[in-house]
Structures are given as C-alpha cells and as structure tokens.
Amino acid sequence: MKITPFFLCLVSAIILTGCATRIAMPKQSADGYETFRFYNPNVEELPTFADQSVEAMAIIQKRLKKDLEDAGLKEAGADADLVITYLVVVQNNTVTTAISDYYQNSGIEIIEAAHEYVQDHKPNRRFEAGTVIVDVIDASTQRLIYRDFATREVIKGSTGEERKQAIESATDEAIQAFTN
Fold first, then answer.
1. I need a labelling partner for 6 at 20 to 30 A (CA). Which of 64, 128, 140, 168 fits?
2. Strand duo 74-75 + 35-38: pairing
C-alpha cells in the first residue's frame, strides 16, 4: 500500500475529527479582531544550526504572521486581541512527538488521540508525517475561538527549499479558514 500525502491528511482528519468530543475544533473567523500576538514570539532569536525543529517553528511563525497580516490583522504586544499558538506533531508508525514550545495549551489530548489512532490503524509501510496545529485564542476571554490543522508527509532527502514549501503550505492550510 502506497502512503500518499492525501492518505496522511485523511488519517489526521480522522484523528482530530473522530475525537471531536475530546478535542475542541472551533472555527470562528478573524472578523471583528484587529491585532494579534504570538504566545512565544522569540523563535527568530534561537539558533537554527543545531535543531531543525527551531527552523520549522521560525518558518511557521513567519508564515502565520504573513497570513494574518494579509487578512488585515496587525501584530501587537501584550494588549493584542488574539493570541496565536501552534503545535507541531511529528509521527511515524510507532512514535508520536510534539514540539510544543510555541503552544499555550498542553496539547496532550491531541497528541494522545493521534498516537492512539496510529497504534490502532498502523499501516504496513513505514511513514513519517508532520502536522501543524494552529490555535487562536481570544485574549480578553481566554477562550479558544479557532483550531485547525494540516498534515504533510516528511520526505527523506528533500531539500531545504522543499521542506520550507511543505511547512508553509501546511501553515497556510491550517489558518486559512480563520483568515478568509
């Protein structure tokens, strides 16, 4: 059985929507909001030479900023209307890992749901995928108003530019319903 990016997206969709009773997936839009801030805005200051996850986080944050600004929102400080957080879940047939330094919530429910699903539906072929999960929180109420995700297959031997394009494409997809 060939594992395609479509299959991985479908698996992730089943993971997150199949557990909707445990995992909130609100889909409010950006309408009515003017400013945003990142939960952890300092990703650009970290060295990227030693850790690819830091590089991925910088790409995600830069792309989210572009997408939000293209939608008319402005980045602000502590008094921003919205708090933007994101989580990356990297998964293969046996291990689920979360890179959560830039995520306000614990993310445990999402990680557990993803891991349980793969354990129950483990494909015969080895695969690795990365999922970007974006949460948007109303800063005044501390209420989650938007959550979505996108998955891309991790392709061994891809160039830095191909990896960047995959991360940007997943990030765009994960925030698209909020910014449109």
1. 64
2. parallel
C-alpha radius of gyration, the chain, whole number: 16
Element (H, E) at 129: strand 128-138
Which range has highest mean pLDDT (15-24, 38-47, 133-142)?
133-142
Q: Which pTM does this prediction carry?
A: 0.78
**Between 52-70 and 160-179, two packed helices, what is the crossing angle to 10 degrees?**
40
SS3 label, residue 7: helix
Mean pLDDT lowest for which of 6-10, 95-99, 117-121? 6-10
Residues 6 or more apart whose CB falls under 8 angstroms from that of 112 comprise none
Supply φ then ψ for residue 134, to 5 degrees: -115, 130
